[in-house]
Structure of Branched-chain-amino-acid aminotransferase:
Amino acid sequence: VADCVNGEWQTPEILPYGDIAYNPALASLHYGQSIFEGMKAFRNVDDEVVMFRPEENFKRFNISAERMCMAQVPEEIFMGGLQKLLELDNAWVPDGENNSLYLRPFMFASDVYLGVRPSFNYRFMIIMSPAGQYYANPPKVKIETQFIRAAEGGVGYAKCAGNYAASLYPAKLAQEQGYTQLLWTDAKTHTKFEESGTMNVFFVKDGKLITPKTSTTILKGITRDSLITIARDKGYEVTEQDVFVKDIIEGIKDGSVTEVFGAGTAVVVSPFSAIGYEGEDYVLPEINSDSVSSVLKKGLNDVRKGISADTHGWVYK
Ligand code: PMP
């Protein structure tokens, strides 16, 4: 826990996990100045605890803070806090292919004040929890063409609480229709893919990878960036481009689109079983160990677990 009081960061403390008291006029409860990151620590094959590209999460956290008009968090508090917590005896980092310790740094406005203005005080915290595989079965996702997640000029690229709050209702409606997740489309025309609920999205068409290019409406995923690099290292062609819904639906129908998968810290690489569009479900071929998503997932896991060489300097010990 570290508090920023009128722009001055106080000395961080490690406290036992438990409830915290809050004032009913706490600014973040009313106006939503609240941001977070999702990261993981792994136990590698040499029994060392490592993080994967944590500096990228640190950078993104302060980008989110800037957009939400919040205090910038110093590196020694964000990175130093993570390292200190991972050194604790009870920071249990499980081993095994799909297991990790999920790390959740977050920050909220801690002024006790009811006027609408940026808070002068912020509380930064990190909590941690062991995590296993996110989806037991490949999710069936719905292409969302009514609600929007993010519009240009908005806060889509920030990892702020409000983005997730706004997506709960459309996600609930999709779940009532039998879908696990949403695939968001652009706010203006609903014809281009953006990203999914907690992941960026990739398509395999004619054996090549395509993914929507990042913009102010998409969270710049660290997994997305890593997979693009791993895929290129492995000789796949990858393009970041506009990805039109109609091209993907046509491609599933004519067999040129063979895989659609999500990429994110929590889900790692998650192939979709089917995508729903305007009341129809378009079923994707089953995944096997030669599928592009399986090859990329293994590539990513092997770097994180120390099975293959860390040629890009991604593993942080
Ligand atoms: N988009 C959204 C909306 C997310 O919540 C996440 C998870 N952080 C991602 C994409 C993937 O980002 P990353 O690979 O950095 O976890």
Notes: The helical segments are 27-31, 54-67, 75-86, 161-176, 222-233, 245-254, 292-304. The chain has two domains: 2-131, 140-306. Residues 38, 195, 198-200, 219, 221-224, 264-265 surround 4'-deoxy-4'-aminopyridoxal-5'-phosphate (CB under 6 Å).
